[in-house]
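Long-time lurker, finally posting.

We've been working with L-lactate dehydrogenase (Dorea amylophila) and I want a structural starting point before designing mutants. I don't trust myself to interpret raw outputs, so I'm hoping someone here can both generate the structure tokens and explain anything notable. Sequence follows.
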Amino acid sequence: MKAIKNGKIVIIGAGHVGSHCGLSLMMQGLATEIVYIDIDKNKAAMQALDLDDMASNLDRDFTVRAGDYSDCADAHIVVMAAGKSRLPGQTRLDMFDDSIKMMNTIVGPLKESGFHGILISISNPADIIADFLRKRLGLPRNQVFSTGTSLDSARLRRMLSEITGVSRHSIQAYCMGEHGDSQFIPVSHIQIGGIPVKEYLSIHPEYRDKMDFDKISAEDKVCGFHIVEGKGCTEFGIGAVLSNITRAVMHDEKRILPVSVLLEGEYGEQGIPAGVPCVIGKNGVEEILEISLTEKEKEQLHNSCNVIRGFVEKADQM
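Top reply, 14 upvotes:
Generated this for you. Predicted structure of L-lactate dehydrogenase:
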């Protein structure tokens, strides 16, 4: 078995999402070698060539090329970005059947390659696909996880920033549960400049009417729908999310991010993947943080896990 090659990232899927993941990784200098794998080999080659042209104008050197599953053997990270684009009006769960069929054509060659690094999955429905891959690859939960609710959380911080005028970088807020319609916001853990949101609103009562968290949650859930309806896909946001997680791994940052990982007793859930705050470092998910939740938030997480559970059981039978 080959040793892991630091800085080598394989991206499976050379479509909109895969291409922007590569772009973001290159702009942040997070990879020395990027390899694209796609069923359309010419598309993979042309995406790599286009990005390689961009590399000529950056202040660091990269190798960007098309390859095959043998390249996964010594890859530090494999990014799963394969799948059809979500259609206007589709939920992520509506993509289940097509995505599982596609993963069944990928998981065999990926496993046979001897891959033993960290797999970050983006393909939707994100929670279920990452769990499916983890089981089929036989890798521990810390090494196979999805971006989960990281993008939803980024959208949440943007909306809170727009309401308050405070930089989104000074706002700590997560979405948890499914990367989908059953996700929820643990309002009890929102902080603005280190100040709990309820206390912040007592200082700034002028924002109370706009800080309707039921409305904010509903808007967060449909943000992706609006982007898909308007331009046909989402790509930039998820590319940046993937880079954030990759940087935490490559630089061993011990950064806390809400990714979807298998729960084995955490939050009272067993055998179900869900988006929860995790410490991300060189070993992938190094710790699952069990934050305290209100009774309402516990119920919301349980309901979200039940949605995921039904599809996990269905995937196990395929």
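Before you design anything, note these points.
The mean pLDDT is 93.
The chain has two domains: 5-146, 150-316.
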